[in-house]
Every structure is written in structure tokens, then in C-alpha cells.
Amino acid sequence: MQLHHLCRKGLAMVDYSPALMTDMYEYTMLDAALKDGTADRKCVFEVFTRHLPEGRRYGVVAGTGRILDALEHFHLDEADLKFLADRHVVSPETIKWLENFHFSGTIRGYREGEMFFPNSPILQVEGTFGECTLLETLILSVLNYDSAVASAASRMASAAKDRPCMDMGGRRTNEWAAVAAARAAVVGGFKGTANLLAAQLYGLKAIGTAAHCFTLVHDSERDAFESQIEALGKNTTLLVDTYNIEEAVKTAVEVAGPELGGVRIDSGDLAAMAQRVRNQLDALGATNTTITVTNDLDEYALAALQTAPVDSYGVGTMLVTGSGAPTCAMVYKLTEREGADGTMVPVMKKSKDKATVPGRKLAFRSYEYALAEAEHVISGSEEKLAGFTPEPTWKNLLVDFVDHGHIDAQWQGHDAIMAAHDYHAKALSELPITAQSLMKGEPVIPTETQVL
Of 8 and 402, which is predicted with more confidence? Predict the structure, then answer.
């Protein structure tokens, strides 16, 4: 595959169309709807999850900015249309309809970094049935994964307290998932990533120095340390557990002096080793040398390390897999559609254990003594919702991302990610403190649904 600059602001991606990042039945439904006349019916689709992963207290929204990036390029070129035609996925009439397709609807929802709970209307997509149905798979694949990573990152960053966490999960997942995970991790509270493409695309802080192989390729550990310091300076971080940690720390300080920036420990009893290394560094005069630990960390390991003299953490596998919950089980459901007479009609699914709440939604959060106490989801017709007056202290959770096809750029790019990072920290501080408990429990606040 060739590479080209696909996304806005020079974001390089593999040459593909986001409009084909979908399940086939989105296009077959479009084809049938165009033939029977329902494709032009106005519709409202909603993204929500029926439940959080078992025992989780809250979720964190992430990925909306990536959806907006993809939406800018959600159209099919000649090769894409030929593929659909050659495979007989859709009829020639639908191919014609797709030639100039651009999403012209409206999208609103929870901003990135916001907390979500069961039945929170995380995203609402309004437009014709034809254009809305094509977005389903793309929206769900982004929100389900990115929000899972951000939710795990939030738990990890909370467990780490004020010590920064860095993403090192690129080698533990799909290569493009690694880029998405790095971005989502920062939304959820991480400070940077080892993934250079993510750092380039989104302006994230990049971190990394050397692996064990760098030490092993040299004739001695001293030679490796001297080489790294010569290349990166005394402020670099040296990996000290290739052979004997105590000897490595001694050699590191001899080579770099007490100005050595940091050391990294990647094996063993991390708490015990960190304590010994801290005492050794201090005894050698390297009192400002920091200690970073890695090695299959998750939120529980980070919590166990709170009393250890550790300065930062590198997290890999458990971050990019959502710490055991790699998806948020979000769904994309039709909640309102235009009837044959032109009026909007609330619709709902009644399947056992999969029923949905009909109608478009408003969403608010109420507070008592500056702490969130409930999520309020108000459902009804556009007219009834327009007449609804929330309590004065309720916080409106919905923001506009796309207005009749026009994307609000404030929700894209580096600044949006940093704003989401800061917003998430504030939103987390407004939840009851039990939200940060690692013990299994119910959602930290209830979701109260009202149908007008």
C-alpha cells in the first residue's frame, strides 16, 4: 500500500477510505432503503452502553476527535466505488448516489475526557437514514476501543497518584491500535507515549532511551552506558536490570556522575528494588536521579507501588487491552425517525435484555456539595425537549461536534487532546471518591432516565 497524507493537518495514514471501515450490511441497508424510499427519512441514532465492565465505577469517553478526523474524508473514490460495484454489494443506482457522498448531518455528545455511565447518550447522530447508517461501524470501532483504553488509563493514573504514567504498549497490540491507544491514554490521564507516530500525529510527548539489547550488544554494561550518555547526555535514563542491578547503578553513577537523569527497572520485586536503588543512589550522591519502573503494570500493581520511591511508570499490555476490558460494549441504535407523514416518531427496540429508550436525548449531571450525585437522561420529541427546563445547578453534558455537515475544529488536533486531558482530571475530581476505588462495585452515580 502506498502512503499519503489523508487526514487534516498533515496526518499521514495508510491509503484507505474511512467509508470502507464498515460492515457490509451498512451498504446493503442503504441500497434497499434507496430503492424503497426510506433512505431520505430523517433519523436520530444514539451511541450508549447498557453496562460498564464488571465492577467498574465509571467510563471515560475518548475517540471523538478521531471520528471527526475520519469524517472529513468519509467518501468513496473511483477505486472504492469500483470495488463495491464489482462485488455487487450495491446497485448501480446506489453507486451513483455514493459518488458525491459527504455527511451533512449533525453530531453531538459527551466531550472527550467526560465520564459516562450505563445509558449515557455518549453520541447522537442526526441526519438521513442513508447517511447515518454508513457511520455505525466506524463510530463504534473508534469509541469502543479508545474509551476502553482511556477508562483503563484513568484508573491507572489515579492509582499512580501524582507520579506520571507513560504509554509503552505499542508492541502489544495492532500497529494502528497502538497509535489510537497512545492518544486515548493521554485523554485518560497519561503524560506521554513511546509511540513516535502517535507523538507526530497528535503532538504528544515522546519518551524512550534504550532496551536490554542495547546493553547486550556491547562488550560490557559500562560500554553501553558510556555510549548512551555520549549520545543522549547525562540526563538520560539508563536501564539497570540487564545483569545485576546493584552493580549497574554503581556503574551508571560512575559513568554519568551524580547528575544522572534516571534509571529504569524492568523486572523483579519492583517495590523492593526501587527502595534499594533509591537508597543506593542517595548514598552515591545521585539524590536527584529519578526511578522509572516498567514490567506488566496495571492499576493494581500501581496502587501497590504507592509507598515505593518511584518517580514514573511505563505501562504497556494492560493499557492497550483496557486492563481486561478491551471494549465498552457500546451500541449504535435508532431512537427516532421520520414517519410517512413527515413527523418524527420515537422508536425503540424491545428485544429481551436489549430494549432501548425511544426518542432523542438531553443529558445532565446533578451535584451536591460539589460532588456528582446522578446522571439525568431526558428523552422525548424535539419539541418536548426544547420546552424542558433542567434544574439550575445541573450541568449540560452534550456539546456540538458537527452542525449540518460542518465540523467544529476545536474538538480536533493536539489542543483538543490536551483540553480533554485537563477536563478529565476535573471531571474525575467531581465524582465521589469511591470512583477511584479499585474494588469491584456499582457505577459511582446512578443514571436516571425520564421520558417526556
Answer: 402
